[in-house]
Structure formats: structure tokens, C-alpha cells
Known about the structure:
The protein has 122 residues and is an all-beta fold. Helix content is 0%, strand content 56%.
Amino acid sequence: QVQLVESGGGLVQPGGSLRLSCAASGSAFSIYVMGWFRQAPGKQRELVAAITTGGTTKYADSVKGRFTISRDNAKKMLYLQMNSLKPEDTAVYYCNAGRYDSAYKYIPYDYWGQGTQVTVSS
Length: 122
């Protein structure tokens, strides 16, 4: 099992930046593929970015070039650097522990944090 706690959300103007953090505790953090998801009001939760244990990353098209996912396995930390934020990035952001299937599709395990609100507004 792994427990996850997100932090770093807040209110930011369009074009601004935020850095989200996710602290993990419990069993071996380093064995999981880790992902950041977000859920806006009235919408389904979507995968924003994912990173393997070795640091290979992938991103949703909507955030490519603006967001950067990273991890520190020794500290059991996951990060999401968000730049050039847009109002459509407004959502609750969640970190998750999961895996890739044979088709390189991210499969979330039922390990979720409580979420952190990101609001992009002038």
C-alpha cells in the first residue's frame, strides 16, 4: 500500500506558475509508475502526466510543453511543475500510483491523495 498527500495548489493568474507536490508513505514508492490526474467540475478525471520509476514521462496533449512531471524516489516525492497556466487548467489535481499495461496505457491503482485545488483566474 501507499498513502499519498498532495500540496501546492492555489489561485494563480493566467500565464502564472505553480508547483504541486505529492508526498508518499507506505510501501516501496519507487516500484510504481506515478501519475497526476485532474478533475474539473462536471468533467471526468483525466490523466495529465505520468512518470516511470526510471523517469520516462508522458503528457496529455493539452499540457505538453507547459507542465513537467518529476519524482525523487529517495524522498518518496512526486512533483508537477505547471507553467503558462490557463483558465482551462482549473481543476482538483490528484496524484496516483499505478502501472502501464502492455499497450503503454496508464492503469491507476486505487491509491489516491485527497487532491489539491488549482484555480487559474484573473
